[in-house]
Design goal:
With 125 residues, the protein is α+β, with helices and mostly antiparallel strands. It has 3 helices and 6 strands.
């Protein structure tokens, strides 16, 4: 069974993507930032990481899972100086076996975005 999960963002249609695709046991979640224009309280990388994980957790719940089902993370960070603080926070969120993680520094469409997280999860039903 394969289906999409939508956040309702108009950017999904404009950009030709889905918030997430559920394909049998697998869930693939598009890059998720913790910055939502007009809604974001966090202006720092760790705060935005927490918000991104809340959004990801909600998406996984819609698919029948949770953060513990994540097998791989890809973390995109605007400033390499923030990597250690983000990593320390992720270390408090994930338990053994922890997911794999690739972290990349990059630029974003707006300077307000500090971090974006892409996830692959497997939910065994």
């Amino acid at each position: 069974m394969r289906y999409a999960i939508s956040s309702g963002s108009p950017f999904e249609k404009i950009g030709g993507y889905s918030r997430a695709i559920v394909d049998d046991d697998w869930v693939f979640i598009s890059g998720t930032s913790g910055y939502v224009e007009g809604e974001t309280d966090a202006d720092d990388a760790v705060g935005q990481t927490k918000k991104a994980l809340e959004i990801i957790s909600s998406t996984l719940a819609e698919a029948g899972g949770g953060l513990g089902d994540i097998v791989s993370l890809r973390v995109f960070v605007a400033r390499r100086e923030d990597i250690i603080d983000i990593a320390k926070h992720l270390g408090t969120v994930f338990q053994d076996p922890r997911p794999t993680n690739t972290t990349v520094t990059c630029g974003f469409v707006t300077d307000e975005i500090k971090v974006e997280i892409e996830v692959t999860a497997r939910i065994r039903k």
